[in-house]
Amino acid sequence: MAGRVLTPAEVLARIPQREPFRFVDEILEIGDDHIVARYTFRPEADFYRGHFPGNPITPGVLLIEAMAQTGVVALGIYLVARERGVEEVRRVLTVFTDVTAEFTGVVRPGDTVTISARKVFFRRMKLRAEVEMRKGDGSLVATATVAGMGIEGV
């Protein structure tokens, strides 16, 4: 491969999303075929006021976003750097293209989730990954197949 291996901290620093729309706090491990990350949903997040008053839960679309940021964006950054070089990472914006998801649990304000993704394929700047999200007690919250693509020059 032409590039180099980025550390988890280097990948995290290159994720383009920022607060309040970054849903990856830490990358625990990363390799050519997988990534494991963690995120804590902040109790003060504004969306909890309306979803649902008196009984707040994290919207499923944000769980999907957390899985996509891990399994497509972060893993994609790692793979692009490994295949094409670190400079190429700066020229590519990874966009989310599709998802199939199943929810099996609820994430409440303050919950920490661990997101594990395994690469299905990465070719021609397109990435597909199988992802699962678990709470701290190990209970499964969601599974998904997420996909995205790198767009150069954006």
Shape: elongated
Low-confidence stretches: none
Q: What is the element string, with H for helices and E for strands?
A: HEEHHEEEE
Helix content: 10-25%
Task: Work out the radius of gyration.
Answer: 15 Å
Strand order of the largest sheet: 1-2-4-5-6-3
N-to-C CA distance: 24 Å
**What is the typical, i.e. mean, pLDDT?**
95
How would a textbook summarize the main sheet?
6 strands, antiparallel
In total, how many beta strands?
6
Sequence-ordered SSE layout with sheet pairings:
Elements: H1 8-14, E1 26-30, E2 34-40, H2 60-84, H3 86-91, E3 92-103, E4 112-123, E5 126-135, E6 140-152
Antiparallel strand pairs: 1-2, 2-4, 3-6, 4-5, 5-6
Give a nutshell description of this structure.
The protein is an alpha+beta fold. The chain has helices at about 10-15, 60-85, 85-90; strands spanning about 25-30, 35-40, 90-105, 110-125, 125-135, 140-150. It is elongated.
What does this structure look like?
The protein has 154 residues and is α+β, with helices and mostly antiparallel strands. It has helices at residues 8-14, 60-84, 86-91, and strands at residues 26-30, 34-40, 92-103, 112-123, 126-135, 140-152. A hairpin with a 2-residue loop joins strand 4 and strand 5. The model has no long low-confidence stretch (mean pLDDT 95).
What attributes characterize this protein structure?
single chain, alpha+beta, 6-stranded antiparallel beta sheet, 154 residues, 25% helix, 3 helices
